[in-house]
Amino acid sequence: MEVTENNKTEKKSLNFVEQLIEEDLAAGKNGGRIQTRFPPEPNGYLHIGHAKAICMDFGAAEKYHGVCNLRFDDTNPSKENTEYVENILNDIQWLGFKWGHIYYASDYFQKLWDFAIWMIEKGNAYVDEQTSEQIAEQKGTPTTPGVASPYRDRPIEENLRLFRQMNTPEAVEGSMVLRAKLDMANPNMHFRDPIMYRIIQTPHHRTGTKWHCYPMYDFAHGQSDYFEGVTHSICTLEFVPHRPLYDKFIDFLKEYDGTAAQGLNDNRPRQIEFNRLNLTYTVMSKRKLHTLVDEHLVNGWDDPRMPTLCGMRRRGYSPESIKNFIDSIGYTKFDALNDVALLEAAVREDLNKRATRVSAVLDPVKLVLTNYPEGQTEQLEAINNPEDETAGSHDISFSRNLWIERADFMEDAPKKFFRMTPGKEVRLKNAYIVKCTGCTKDADGRIVEIQAEYDPESKSGMPGANRKVKGTLHWVNADDCVKAEVREYDRLFNVENPSADDRDFRELLNPHSLHVYDNCYVERFAASMKPGQYLQFQRTGYFMADPDTTDEKPVFNKTVGLKDTWAKQNKK
Fold it and tell me: Among 216, 257, 504, 511, which one has the highest count of C-beta atoms within 10 angstroms of its own C-beta?
């Protein structure tokens, strides 16, 4: 990308994946085509780790004028359903990407079955009746060769009969598998007669009960890429040792004389691996995320504490902030643990430009302006976003009775306390300068009301407003506001890297990851906001209305604070 500024031309550096793609384009591979794919398994909801892959798969295709298709890797019906499919579609669209076509691995079940039959007929596959434990033990170790299965050299006709038997309703799960006959001494463990098919007697969400025998990922994935004409199969680092097997199966497929390879013999997908996205105080394992949901340790897949995209959307993250964060950490060949504070900083930076400023008081105490006329109300102007001149403004009502934050008042304050205290002046944002005259306490000594006098010549915009005061407080009109619930979130886990901790991850959960304020007040304009509209509660942080909102009671989720106070609190 060329960028010209002040007569200087700079070229934005390419990541290593883009460099490899450009090398292939320069070499004329695949006829100059670029075709990628995003291949999620529909067995859970997408999380921010998947977002990194989405940005790469779709972004590379877009940058090089190619196409990115979406393919669901639906080869394990015992864990998959249409709910996950629908949410994956929603999440990709929310991130702002468009696929060329939607495919399913199940589209190729017949092709894969026919290819497996050919493998058996060529003597390159056999049915093994050992248990999974026996197979694992006989595979050996990376430094010692494996031991051949006693079924490795059974006759081809018997293998064909048993393989067809595997695909019957009577077949018993775990009783047989189909294995490729490769090399039991290969230092790459994936080459030691990998399993190609296993029996699963669960109806499939698309094919029903047509199949009882399903292909393994390593057998289905590369072939699906090949069937579709994928040029670059971009995946994460754990698939590096799988790459030779990926290529080997494609070698077999290129020999296969059938419709599966017609017209595609000149194309070979290139597998490229990049580092996964890992975040502090977070787990990305689908198994663990499933446990959190299934055991009700969180409030569903879209709980705002979850790293799922739907959880982040509900919390108030913008898709742009997620993409900016992913772009900032980049793509490398080395796994790393990224500080979640970097993600929050990206969210904060983006929302500062797009969030509407409103007033809300989370821990209210009454402020009465004793010299303001009783029963009078006036409308004041509030700028919607000082970072965006086109955002306009809205009216806020002002009266004698207000709510302010309890933490903004101190009866006996230290010298550097620049908020409300008896005898000192502060400005009420968008309104007047007021001087505190005292407070009222209940029988337990708790402050229940603060009294102050306002200066009628000090309203924002008046000549008298130029008088300098050191503190500015936000407020809401107690006579014209809406009671609300606010949910504030902390880290879901107490340890920085829960995935590396030997303890049960449930023991590492932060018991204080959710705090609910159920006695808050927001200005009426804020109460009208819907999920998907970005808000800044002035002096507090960024928020978004939650789907639990009702006409009677709005509910807001705190997205992120105005500053990163978490790190400072945890250094004490």
Answer: 216
